[in-house]
Structure formats: structure tokens, C-alpha cells
Task: inverse folding
């Protein structure tokens, strides 16, 4: 079982604002911070961003892929909208992903550093 995940970002302050906006619909807020890292979660830090100022932007076929559970489709949609409003690139608009499961509803974004972040929920009555 995974307890937490961390990804590298080049600008901790800008990325903290970015992730605060897009993680809010998933019920995650900053719960711990230091000058070079911020941990987001519901009650403890489940998702960390760590500053790596010298890191170069990652190519589209590289970087981390982190999938975060959303409570429902509205949260997935809000995650995607907040990310785009904050300057992320869509890597898959909200919708069903039948190739994964008949119940899989997700959206994918790429942050400024090339990391692929997904919000996903599983629909009980989807076909």
C-alpha cells in the first residue's frame, strides 16, 4: 500500500499555488510545508511537491504519472477546469475511459514541469 507520493517541480511557490487550486476539488489542501516542499492531503500529506530548481522541463513522454481518487465526476471535472485555468495542459479531457474499465471516469493534465496528474472516480452504474 502506498502512503504518499512526491514529484519534482522547478518553482515551489508557483507550483504550490497551482496544486492548491487543482487539488481543492479532490478535498486536498496543503497540510505541511517547508521552504522547498509542500505536502497536500485530506488529513496528512499524501501528495508532495519538492523543489528541484535546476531540473529542466520534462519531455511529454517522461515525467511522473500520479492518479488521485476523486469522490465523483463533478470533482474530476473541477480538477481539470482548475488545472487549465492555472496554466496546465490537458492530457485528456474528463470522460469515461472504457479501455481501462466500464466504470472509469478520469481527466489528465500535464503540469508546467511535465508531470502527468490524473483525477479518477469509478462509477457504479456506468456501462
Result:
Amino acid at each position: 500500500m502506498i502512503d504518499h507520493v512526491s514529484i519534482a517541480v522547478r518553482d515551489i511557490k508557483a507550483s504550490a499555488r497551482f496544486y492548491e487550486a487543482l487539488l481543492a476539488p479532490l478535498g486536498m489542501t496543503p497540510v505541511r510545508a517547508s521552504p522547498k516542499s509542500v505536502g497536500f492531503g485530506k488529513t496528512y500529506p499524501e501528495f508532495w511537491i519538492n523543489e528541484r530548481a535546476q531540473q529542466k522541463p520534462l519531455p511529454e513522454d517522461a515525467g511522473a504519472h500520479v492518479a488521485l481518487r476523486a469522490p465523483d465526476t463533478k470533482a474530476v471535472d473541477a480538477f481539470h477546469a482548475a488545472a487549465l485555468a492555472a496554466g496546465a495542459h490537458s492530457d485528456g479531457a474528463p470522460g469515461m475511459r472504457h479501455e481501462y474499465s466500464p466504470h472509469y471516469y478520469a481527466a489528465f493534465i500535464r503540469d508546467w514541469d511535465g508531470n502527468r496528474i490524473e483525477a479518477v472516480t469509478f462509477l457504479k452504474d456506468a456501462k
Summary: Residues 24 and 113 are 20 Å apart (CA to CA). Residues 73-85 form the longest helix (13 residues). The chain has two helices and eight strands. The chain has a mean pLDDT of 93.
